[in-house]
Amino acid sequence: MRLTAQEVYDKLVNEDGILQLEGQIKFYLGDVNIIVKQRDVVGNIMQEWLQGWLDKRGIEYAPSENTQMPPDFFLNPDDKTKNLLEVKAFNRNRGPGFDIADFRMYEEEIINKPYMLNVDYLIFGYDMNDDGVVTIKDVWLKKVWEITRRMEDWPINLQIKDNVVHKIRPGIWYAEDTARTDYTVFESLEDFISAIEEAVFQNPKTHNNAGTWKAAFLRSYKQETGIDLSIPRWSEIKDKYDLKSVRKLEKAKSDLAKATDQYEKIKERIQLYHQKLHVEQEKNNVGKVGKIQDDIEKQKKNAEKAKEKINKAQAKIDELEG
Amino acid sequence: MRLTAQEVYDKLVNEDGILQLEGQIKFYLGDVNIIVKQRDVVGNIMQEWLQGWLDKRGIEYAPSENTQMPPDFFLNPDDKTKNLLEVKAFNRNRGPGFDIADFRMYEEEIINKPYMLNVDYLIFGYDMNDDGVVTIKDVWLKKVWEITRRMEDWPINLQIKDNVVHKIRPGIWYAEDTARTDYTVFESLEDFISAIEEAVFQNPKTHNNAGTWKAAFLRSYKQETGIDLSIPRWSEIKDKYDLKSVRKLEKAKSDLAKATDQYEKIKERIQLYHQKLHVEQEKNNVGKVGKIQDDIEKQKKNAEKAKEKINKAQAKIDELEG
Predict the structure, then answer these.
(1) Fold entry, domain B5-241
(2) Whether the Cβ atoms of residue B91 and residue B127 lie closer than 8 Å to each other
(3) Residues B18-47: pLDDT tens digits?
(4) Could you tell me the residue ranges of all domains in chain B?
(5) How high is the ipTM of this complex?
(6) With an 8 Å Cβ cutoff, is A31 touching chain B?
């Protein structure tokens, strides 16, 4: 039986009800066996479990030819450019801890084999409770750009050791609580390619290929798909993925509104004081006149401070929106 | 049933034949199960397996009260100062990768509870083959000083991160091939204590306790055991644990022997040349006389070089033996 990645997903979730199953890991030695309560182990064995499941269900596949690179399974053994399936798993109570691929191998691979961009990522979010009972909390089927993101200093989230670029790492695509993530995953293949190209340029080890990387990729992609991709410049899109910028802008706008409100109130107050001053001057009440004049001076200083806040917030907004 | 650590060892090895058993780790989810082929997992589960085994055999124990510190099992639940058992496991195809204890907790613990020095370490050396079959290659029952050693810059093998002392780490006690280890494990409790005391002094975080550490330990040890321990100074014992020094000394002695032999041969040769020179001078054979004189000059230079080697080797020996 041959299935697409989507059909594999549907069968797992809808027919086999994987989200309702309870699993466990057991260690046997002699006549003693114990339940293994090591959460990180599950992340490393779901791919083998899926292989066992494909076998048991009689679903055809050819296994991976290079364990370093996607995919884990060719769901169409006769055409290894279509229906490619990569399996990932992570502890759902933590963030995704898996690697996508080695950056240099990946940026070369997608020029040589643009169909690699179409790999389906079948991702399991698992849980292990204190008794060692394993459950699958979530299953996703995603494209690579739907699970990757930028980082602060690089256009793609990279594992960097001693200043050397290693693996492409995932973002968080399921965040209910966006306040906890600083960068959103990419919105499109084009934006993902833009980020990869910028990273090829930025990485000293690939910098010399950057001049022709985009042209080579676009030519290869068109040859394979017939499609002329239009890749945006990274500088034009990078800010929309930075929730920190978005949040900073929101904060600056809120600061501006607050400071403006404050400024208006102080101005009203000063006007009111002037009226009172007028009344007391008419009465020739020297003591009160002096006190009100002091109050007016104080409020004028407050107005200056509020004006400064307004200018500062406006400058921040101009900077962030510019 | 109550057993000593030695009886536990004997039952495991002789009665239950643990060295002949074949184990495996399996993951179950739904109607699919797979063999888990992750070697490092075994190291983390042998302690739980032993607990299962103690339960199954009806061997009494009280479990660990602090998982950070030895022991894992109190084999006499009525007296938690005797018959303490700590379980360790490591991949026999690699070196021991487990921790002994946090250094600071340990140096304090053995003052407060000197009986901790008497903990029995039950150590499993396991193997997992490519099919995931787990076998136990070796089981040892050891005292702490029989599985610890010095290192280059510290009297005890320590895990040091960012210049901060963390865990005490094991040595290799089973080395058939001593050429691969630079330091041997300690020969006695006394030498181990000497090393701990020196490390207390050397570690900036414990340095201020070093002045009274030994006195406090000896007092506490005597109070508990009635024994006056005699602790050697670290400077007096450290070299015997350094196989590198031992090997350097052997090399220097061998260099000395070789150079001396060479020097003697050159001197004989020079004597021979002088005899030949005498013969040719008698014959008035000017050509040959000149040639032999050149040869003698050459051999004198060689003799000087050999003499230099002798002096160098002797200096090295004096330095290493001094």
Answers:
(1) ECO RV Endonuclease; Chain A (3.40.600)
(2) yes
(3) 999 999 999 999 999 999 998 888 988 999
(4) 5-241, 246-321
(5) 0.74
(6) yes
